[in-house]
Amino acid sequence: MSALEKLSYRELAYHILQTFFSDFSEKELRDCIDNAYGSNFASPKIAPITYHAKNAYLELFHGPTIAFKDIALQLLPHLMTAAARKNGLQKEIVILTATSGDTGKAAMAGFADVPGTRIIVFYPKDGVSPVQERQMLTQQGKNTSVVGVAGNFDDAQTNVKKIFNDTELNEELEQAGFRFSSANSINIGRLFPQVVYYFYAYGQLLKAGKIKKGDSINFSVPTGNFGNILAGYFAKRMGLPINKLICASNRNNVLTDFFNEGVYDKNRPFYVTSSPSMDILVSSNLERLLFYISGEDPVKTKSLMDELTSTGKYRIDDSMHSKLADFYAAYATEEQTGQEIAEIFTADQTAIDPHTAVAAYVAKEYQKNTADPHQTVVVATASPYKFPQFVLTALHAEYSSGSPLSLVDALHSKTGTPLPQTIKDLAVLPLKHHREVAPALMKTTVAEILGIKPE
Ligand SMILES: *Cc1c(COP(=O)(O)O)cnc(C)c1O
């Protein structure tokens, strides 16, 4: 492999992903990568770095749905259909996904009209931003279905997991010619593509002369289901010099407490915040970290997860806790998040989104508290145009709280930040999806959409 800083995103993606997908031929894997990372991204770099104050920002929001989940979900359908072909799978793949706002749209953008697949997305009716909701309800593609759930993200995610584990329903599906799969980060195919941009960020810092070869850097990651930051942990284990992975949470700070106290406790109030993709109390991918810090002990990992299911809480022992030194964890309140957006705008005339602002705030707090001199990269996970109302409020801008589109226009006038094409498209696309159900009816709804009758 030639020097990291010289590789294009695609070339780097090939080198990293071939270590995980060793059963793909070089041509198969390169075809998947070439199809995933092209003109569908607004930046030819795919994941460019910008600088605000002394921190670097890894911009992961230049894909079709302007959030970082595009990076994995533009690739996943290609990987999945290639794997199905290789294995002679005749069934139609049904992607079932619970979304806190960004996954669902990104998954649909990836799977829309992909032959041999269908996708059903459940989102919490009151837990997503108006722009996110409009993005989903205008989704095109004959094989896409979107359903609003009267509940929060955990309700939606818990029921999707139940449907996956429902043996009876799965048997009926098989008979009808379907096979369930997931586009949530419980699918390992979501995680590996995310390892790539940690290496790519390092290469760009080298190229810009911000670091020297071998220097360690920090990443501050706005965290919900722990998928993004876990990919950073994988990158570190693969040899990338990472000093600290900063786990930044919003007011739903269950992870902050876990890292600092060694106790995971989901028995606490759930808050709807300005960073909805991080409004999560049961962080799916943490189980994978537990596996590593337990010394790859599946029995110990399972008993902790069982405890979580039965009591909503578990405590890790000292030996496990001591292995968390790769991480630093803290959180930002709503007020601190807004302040951070305002501060960056005043300094740089740039608007950042609330998720990114949480990570930026926590990174600065970390730097203040520790005086750690390592270069820090804030992982910028969404475009501010996805969350215009909160950003406008934070910037004390005038706006009338009307349609999502008028908010987008107001943010554009205030900041001058270029409008992504996909946001312009929202204005002309018709609303296509209208279903809303109670969490308890999600299973029946799936059967209905697929045209099968559960007993
Ligand atoms: C999903 C998401 C996150 C959280 O990422 P996890 O992998 O779930 O920790 C943060 N920011 C945005 C914009 C997201 O869409």
Summarize the structure.
The protein has helices at residues 9-20, 26-36, 69-73, 76-86, 103-111, 130-137, 153-164, 167-175, 188-207, 227-237, 254-261, 286-293, 298-311, 318-322, 334-348, 354-370, 388-394, 404-415, 421-426, 442-450; strands at 49-52, 55-59, 92-98, 117-124, 144-149, 178-182, 217-222, 242-249, 263-265, 313-315, 327-331, 375-380, 435-437. With 455 residues, it is of the alpha/beta class.
Assign the CATH architecture of the largest domain: 3-Layer(aba) Sandwich
Strand content: 15-25%
Radius of gyration: 21 Å
Structural domain tally: 2
Structure, described:
The chain has a six-stranded mixed beta sheet. A five-stranded parallel beta sheet has the order 6-3-4-5-13, sandwiched between helices. Strands 9-10 form a two-stranded antiparallel ribbon. It has helices spanning 9-20, 26-36, 69-73, 76-86, 103-111, 130-137, 153-164, 167-175, 188-207, 227-237, 254-261, 286-293, 298-311, 318-322, 334-348, 354-370, 388-394, 404-415, 421-426, 442-450, and strands at 49-52, 55-59, 92-98, 117-124, 144-149, 178-182, 217-222, 242-249, 263-265, 313-315, 327-331, 375-380, 435-437. β1 (49-52) and β2 form a beta hairpin. With 455 residues, the protein is α/β, with parallel strands linked by helices. It is built from 20 helices and 13 strands. α1 packs across α2 (26-36), α2 (26-36) runs antiparallel to α4 and α9 packs across α10 (227-237). The protein folds into two domains: 49-67 and 188-388, Rossmann fold (3-Layer(aba) Sandwich); 70-187 and 432-450, Rossmann fold (3-Layer(aba) Sandwich). The model has no long low-confidence stretch (mean pLDDT 94). Bound molecules: pyridoxal-5'-phosphate (PLP). The site of pyridoxal-5'-phosphate has 17 residues, from α10.
